[in-house]
Amino acid sequence: SDRLVECIDQFSWRRNGKFFNIGKDPRVTMRKRSGTLEIGFRSGGRPEDYEGEYQCFATNDFGVSLSNKILLRVSKAPLWPKEVLEPVSVIEGSPLVLPCNPPPGLPPPFTFWMDSNMSPIPQDKRVSMGLNGDLYFSNVLAQDANTDYSCKARFLFTHTIQEKNPYKLKVQTNRKVAESTPTFLSPSGSESSKMVLRDEQLLLECIAAGLPTPIIKWFKKGGELPGQKVKFENFNKTLKIVSVSEEDAGEYVCMANNHLGTIRHSIFVQVKAAPYWLVKPSDQVLAPEETGRLICRANGNPKPHIEWLVNGQPIESSPTNPNRQVLGDTIIFRSVQIGSSAVYQCNASNEHGYLLANAFVNVLDLPPRMLGPKNQLIKVIKNNRTFLDCPFFGSPLPELRWFKNGQGSGLDGGQYRVYINGTLEIKRAQAEDEGTYTCVASSILGKAENQVRLEVKEPTRIIQAPEHQSAIRGSTARFTCRVTSDPSLPVSVAWMKDDKPLYLGWRLKKDDESLSIPNVNEGDEGTYTCTVKSEIDQLSASARLTQRTPTAFKSRPDPPIDLDLSDPAARSVRLTWIPGKDHRSPITEFLVQFEEDRWEPGRWQNLSSYPGDLNSVILQLAPFVNYQFRVIAINSVGQSDPSRPSPRYKTTGAAPDAIPKGLRGWGSRKDNMEITWEPLLDLERNGPNLHYIVWWRRKDVEEEWNNVTTLGAKHVVHNTEIYVPYEIKIQARNEFGAGPESNMVIGYSGEDIPDAPRFFKINRRSLDTIHLEWAKPLEPNGILTGYQLKYQTVNGSKVGPFQLETFFPNVTEFFLRVPDRSSRYKFFLSALTQVGKGEDYAEESPHFTNEGKAVIFELTDSFVASGFTPTPTPFGYPSPTTISPTTISTSTTPTPTTTTSTTTIATTSTTEIWNLTVEPNSNYANVSWTHNFPPGSSDFVLEFILNSNNTKKDVKSQQPPIIVVDLIPGVVYHLRVYSHLFNNVSSKQVTFKTKAAYIDQVDIATQGWFIGLMCAIALIILILLIVCFIKRSRGGKYPVRDKKDLPLDAVDQKDQDGSFDYHSDEDNKPLQGSQTSLDGNVKESDDSLVDYGEGGDGQFNEDGSFIGQYTVKKDKDETEGNESSEATSPVNAIYSLG
């Protein structure tokens, strides 16, 4: 065939830098009025003889212009050398590379692999073709020996395909295939380099061997991969950047990993650049004595060299011109003269390429002239942007000015703008802008002018557009298109159907404002458009006509037929079908269903839906599934029967793509942690022998990962410490490899009952209020769910019924209002976890001598050592059967506190957390979450779903935390929180279980009232024994008065006036009287020891007599009102015990 080489002008050619004599070669001719060369080989000759570099030179009286160099090469498709290939023997699980090595061609051939049956070799993460055409196996499986492998080379220019003799594999199988760590098949080593030119395509490749098949990941050191430019191909083994720029240089790292290890390879990318223009020289027109310049500025890597030529010759060898100065990439012309016109060439080159540009410097003197038509009439639409053109020329360059109606100064500024090429812009044309505009170009050589007349018209409008219609078959449809326009502009109305001109014929009727379609049928359906056109504007409006068939004539569509599968791929296939009859109701949708014979044979499941105008779709499939498909057509009446099933299509297996969901760690006992997850769905398995690898390790402790492989959806870690955090992750694997690892989650080992609160403070704030305050336990042993306070009144040996208070974990104080100021209480405070109630702090409130006095019980090492460790009370206490919740809060956030007969005031300190948490009780739950909504911008909705029957309950709230009541005890709920204003902003769903209803088992031996009664009886007996002992010790003594001169009575009675009345000793014998009262025969004397208990004057003499019997007896009420803690005498000790 002939070879054509185009040239911009005619004259001469150079080949390989030398003059090419066209006249001496009969096969080469030049076309007339053109510089095109034609080389013919019909009469013989070898095209290879004409290979080389060609360049065209065009010459006239003003100079010489050059074309770019043209490289002429002959396309070649060499034969593949025949070779005998021995079967390749390989051990199962080992890597393998089958080389292709196609013969070199021009241009290089496109390679691909097929088997002897001309079927493409399926490629996946394990088997794929590299950029060099070789076929890489990351690991060989036994089934790889079931086919042969042949490399093909397609030579695009010659439209031929060459093929290599096929390879056959012999796979040596073992009972157990050994797994191996990743190694790189391509490229080799730990680092390599790559050079790429700017604006070209960058391809980086990493292919790894290993079993399981390694996963390839890419990243760039010191920065992120440019997401808009980077594409990953060949199952992530190839990184592709289409148009490279300088910022794409750097170190790229590909990482290959499986569960046995990880390797990396660094590729150092250098970006070079062939020259590219920054400023390209352009033609110059100069008048005599003017100054000008040519600029040739280019960039590249390495920086290009700039070379100037004049008329095709280096500027250094051209005749000297004193008016011209070369300064690197710039030529400056000063005071140019007539006759110095020439064509200048700029050549910018480096080792990667070159640029060539011609610039004609024309020196002439020419008076101004107008280049456009004379006296134009321009019509424009009102309010439109308008341009009035006035092309002109002259040397030197004339000055241009615009005038309106021949008056005033030049137009420029405001709504006018004059461009350098002479165009006048009117930004928004109005009626007052009509008139005659004159443009005047002037220079020292003269002037020229031209006129443009402007008319401003009203726009054309459609005031009644056609509307969509649905017409019954056989009726008449009418579309209206009413318009208004400028009176001076005639308009025409044309109708189109489905964007094609509408043929009216004898049935359709059209008038100035409407289109009528009588006797509507199916062929009339479509989109009708009326187009209104004037001389200077046009607009259109459309409406759709559909035909309605009476319901009585409609029915379900027939099922599709002739299902066909094509374009098979690893995870997709094309399904094509022929739609059935729609029975007067158009098919709006096709439903594609599938059935597979491995997991649920015989069960048809929905795959996807497609619009009713499609009958060929690409189905996205899961690996390792044997599919068959059927199609159901849907119209307004209903669904068709299913089509007949398609042929079966089996997808190849692959490593899992999915990550098991719902990974969590929790303790079912205090010394274990159960790791659970949701198993993959059947269609997510992607291959046989699905199993899971679970990793765990203590959080915040330098500990190696523990792991286990299991087939189930649960693993129990034993012998753990109580409630410690663990990091957990999981990965699904099958015979084809490992899936992606999950994100790390935090789990906790089992909880236990908590320790007692760290301290317990009892403080009397006022006469009728007791303030209780406590601190969290030193060892919560889990998540605190709250605190439980039981208390009862204590009045000597009498105790009142128990009252119960429960608090949320962030409540650490309680105000108790007491009805009786003299009441004393016994308190039992314990912390709660999900496991149960911890140790009780059992303390009794003391008698307060002053308001505000506090008693603090703190759980410290010294406190425990001193014997005051809080211990459970020796007697049990019954739980109340009914607890009515009431809430009185002193904080801004409502905090409910449950109570019985007393009123409570609880103060809370809100603790912020950054996830959705639920602290459930039996019939209520404390819910808290965090959010980043501005205050007051949105309410929140709590969605509770009952696990047993999926019943849903919504609770609206403003800010966390909140308490949700009326829950069912002992059941499982699913909860999520979402924004009431933005429903798509939602938390993750959490699952919790409410506690079972709590019922105490009453044991009399552990009840408080029984313990109190026994203690009171023991105390009374002790008092009686001590009194008896004292009176016996006084029995042998005589009264003091026997030693005095004055006779005194044994008892000093005080009269009302404060004097004492003395009686004889014979009337009263106090010691004997006291002893007798113990026997129960004689009434006890009023002069008892108890009456003198608090006096402080009751002392014994050396002989044992009691001097205090002569002191004034204290008032009984006063003694009871001042309970001294000092026991200076046996009498005092007895009273304080009472």
Automatic annotation (TrEMBL):
Provide ranges: composition bias, Basic and acidic residues. Answer: 1051-1069
Mention any Pfam family matching this sequence: Bravo_FIGEY
Q: Which residues form the Fibronectin type-III domain?
A: 559-654, 659-752, 756-852
Q: Does the keyword Cell membrane apply?
A: yes
Q: Where is the composition biased (Low complexity)?
A: 878-902
Query: Where do the record's region annotations for Disordered lie?
Result: 875-902, 1051-1138
Species of provenance: Oreochromis niloticus (Nile tilapia)
- Which positions fall inside the Ig-like domain? 81-153, 182-270, 275-362, 373-455, 459-546
GO BP annotation list: axon guidance; brain development
Q: Which GO terms describe its cellular component?
A: axon; plasma membrane
Asked if the keyword Chloroplast belongs to this entry, the reply reads: no
Transmembrane regions listed in the UniProt entry: 1009-1030
Gene3D superfamilies under this entry?
Answer: Immunoglobulins
| Record-given protein name | Neurofascin homolog (chicken) a
| Entry similarity comment | Belongs to the immunoglobulin superfamily. L1/neurofascin/NgCAM family.
Q: Which UniProt key words apply to this protein?
A: Cell adhesion, Cell membrane, Disulfide bond, Glycoprotein, Immunoglobulin domain, Membrane, Repeat, Signal, Transmembrane, Transmembrane helix
PANTHER family the UniProt entry points to? NEUROFASCIN, PROTEIN SIDEKICK
Q: Which GO terms describe its molecular function?
A: cell-cell adhesion mediator activity
What PROSITE patterns is this protein classified in? FN3, IG_LIKE
